[in-house]
Please model this.
Amino acid sequence: MINEANLLDKYASEVFAGLVAPALEGVHAEILASAIPAADLLVKEDVLIRMNTELKRALEKPASERRWVMVIDLRRCIGCSACTVACVAENKLPPGVVYRPVMMEEVGTYPNVSMKFLPRPCMQCDNPPCTPVCPVSATYKNAEGVVEIDYDQCIGCRYCIAACPYSARTFDFGYNYAEQLPVFDAAIVGGTTAAGYEHASKEYGEDWARNGIQESPVSNVRKCHFCLHRLKEGMLPACTTTCIGRATYFGDANDSTSLVIELINKPNVIRLKEELGTEPRVYYIV
Amino acid sequence: MKKQIFVLITALLGFVAGSFGVYDRLVNGHLNAAYGSYIPWGLWVALYIYLVGLSAGAFLFSTLVYVFNIHRSGNVAAVATLPVGLADGSEFSLRRLEDIGKLALFTALVTLFGAMFAIWMDIGHMERAWKMLLQTNFHSLMGWMLWFYTAYFILLMAELWLAMRADLAARASKNWLARLLTFGRLDTSESAVAADRKALRILGSIGVPLAIAFHGGVGALFGVIGARPFWNSGLTPIIFIVGALLSGGALLTFITAFFGSNQEEIGQLIPFLGRIVLGLLALDVLLELSDYLVNSYAAIPAHVDALRMVLFGPYWWVFWFVHVGLGVALPAFLLIAFRRSSFATATASFLIAFTFITVRLNIVIPGLSISELKGLGSAFTGPGLTFSYFPSQTEWLLAVWVVSFAVLVFLAGLHWLPILNERKESN
Model:
């Protein structure tokens, strides 16, 4: 939590005294007038606190009454890819598997240029094109509206990858980050030590160790699942908590007082490829 | 026989070399495949639709004989005696189409084997393939496919058995395999053969909609994908079916010319088949032109980008040289200019059938190689996160193995089963 009055005080006294002092005067006058301690008046709650509270409230309801949505404020996104990395770390994604890349695009011509960023999780479509095509019903929309993959059912035909209009699915070919590190008896243990870091993924609340090409999740299709395993424990998705600019929001759209509802009931909200009728549950503020 | 030995040696070499691809696939999974997550399907899927198309096409050609009775000259007795290889050298040349009945069925069976191997190796968890049959999602076109293939496989086996039974029975006294395969039904009387024919006709009649359904189904499997505008067209299943007829018919024409034992009869039959192949080639080109021109004019980026990839992309020569040059222009020239020559017709048919793999590749790969979101290709790096594709060594070798395997099974069939009618006595 940030106490803005204290912060201003600090800057005013140390560096920008001359510049900040007039603004500070007004603040002080207001504080004096209301007789409320400055700390209470100007405390701004981090949106993560609010989302966490709302998440706990949503979890008290039956799963089918929740409607998870994600909102990404593209004006706040700075393209740091912290969400991508957090997702890789959280889900122990191997090389070649990514759930939430951030697309970057340069717009304009020099010197009038700027960057556009577009983080792309799974859209968790209400009308997903990827689920009906699965020949063995291994992917489906669960009660909370999240599109899951049953790793033990998936045969790895990759039809769903072809059917997804957002390229939100990737195939686990069985690579490991540690596999090419050196190992030498009793001296160099890079490979074995590093392999320890590639723990089993906890996706869907199970342990998914990486044991060769025929054991799931290797040779399966994988995708973002809004960190279902974290939600179950009352934690927000890894991308949401990691976003340094607080550009990613997550919550229950069935809760009319939630932050996400506040954000998406605005005219400056878009969804990707609306024309396909997929009804994504990821909204972008532009 | 020389020709057969040449094919046998080539196929054996392909089988041995290709085994490395199979070994690599079984041991290392998909690690050494060039397709990835953005282009999830590659050579093996193209090979699968190519082979299954050949199968459907060859099968539909067999129905010309068994269902539509194209050969019939009004002489029922002659019809009845033909399958047992007791032909009388009738003057009506179209009756010779009868010769290709069994060959067409067997070709359909062998290419189906190849297709199933190719697609089985392509899936991530080969050990879970049974789920497609026993835990099917019938909302998925792919879910339907294995059911179709199973029904088709049973039908092919039944038809082939009926078509060969009288021949097997005739050989039963001196050949234990033939005796075994008759399953005890040794009756070679005219009425028994006529009963076989009737059953064949019924099965063939079921087979026509089945073959159209399963190959149209493969086309629809691509056609229904709204995310891929290049595939998403009502024309896709039709193009698949016509392509199957063309490639399967061409293959059959080539096989008949190449393996047929009686050159005199082949001399009459091949130009006839050549005319059918030429007609199908024209129809196929018409559909392709319609599809390409309409979409080029509309120029909607998501669609036309894939089209540009085919026509002017990194593998433009596959379309212009291999497909248009060797697969359409040269065969069309041969089929028109030398329409009475068996050799020219067979060469043209070989070219059409062989180069048709590029048509399949140019359906599967360009549809996938257009980025669905701008900047995705450079958003995150890793193996398989790329929009360029060229089959890896493992993919080529496995493909060679699948084709060699199919050819070996085919040669074995020719050697041990009465697939070809024995006409040597009429020489």
Summary: Chain A has two domains: 2-44, 47-285. Chain A touches chain B through 48 residues (CB under 8 Å).
